[in-house]
Design a protein that fits this description.
The structure holds two protein chains of two kinds. By secondary structure, chain A is α+β, with helices and mostly antiparallel strands. Helix content of chain A is 57%, strand content 20%. The chains are: A alpha+beta, B alpha+beta.
């Protein structure tokens, strides 16, 4: 067993060669596929930025300044 | 937006610092060549620019700046894929989604971008076995502690 979902099965032996098969529930594949699709969707959304570069820089600078201030207060 | 980006980073885009993403990025599998550029002196953020498609760029951030407790194991298979021989070669950047305000911006902690800066290769590695999500608030709400799950 590999983990608790995937099983290696010996399908046959011929001389020096061992044939291996893999038993895995389909839901493992489906789960990983769903996650992959979620990452794709997230990336596609991420390229659509609604702010201009300059206002983005402003936002980022003020965010960092705020964090520094907050740290000073801890 | 991207033309504005290119104008402001002209002269800073050094193609010799291009990064090869052998599998592209999920959703952008055909784009293999990128470069990371600084946003002036604003350090925990960079832009990951496609060198092949002008209008494709990702705002990325240093996840440990926003979530110091962020932690996961890099599988050996990925270390081999990215020819990593030492931890010092690794850079981790996470994709930020922002529409108009930073308060609503989110960071993808489920699929960090792992770069071997010495070899100039990278990939977006999906943390399938973690509880991280694609949308963690970039700006953690006051009083919140730990990573929301």
């Amino acid at each position: 067993m590999i983990g608790n979902q995937i099983e290696l099965v010996v399908l046959g032996v011929e001389g020096d060669t061992v044939k291996l098969g893999i038993r895995a529930p389909k839901d493992v594949d489906i789960y990983r596929k769903e996650i992959h699709l979620a990452i794709e969707a997230s990336n596609r959304e991420a390229v659509k930025r609604g702010v201009t570069l300059d206002s983005l820089k402003e936002l980022l600078r003020s965010d960092i300044n705020q964090r520094e201030k907050n740290k000073g207060q801890e | 937006m991207h033309n504005e980006m290119i104008r402001s980073v002209e002269g800073e885009v050094d193609e010799s610092k291009s990064l090869l993403f052998d599998q592209g990025l999920p959703g952008f599998e055909s784009l293999k060549r990128f470069t990371l550029v600084d946003l002036e002196e604003v350090l925990p953020f960079k832009m990951l620019l496609s060198l092949e498609q002008e209008d494709i760029s990702f705002l990325v951030g240093d996840p440990f700046f926003f979530y110091p407790e962020y932690e996961w194991q890099l599988p050996e298979a990925v270390q081999h894929e990215l020819e990593i021989t030492d931890e010092s070669e690794i850079e981790i950047w996470t994709v930020i989604t922002i529409s108009t305000t930073l308060v609503e911006a989110t960071v993808n902690l489920l699929a960090p971008i792992v770069i071997n800066r010495i070899k100039g290769v990278g990939k977006q590695h999906i943390l399938h076995n973690s509880d991280y999500q694609t949308r963690h608030p970039l700006v953690r709400p006051a009083g919140a502690s730990g990573l929301a799950e």
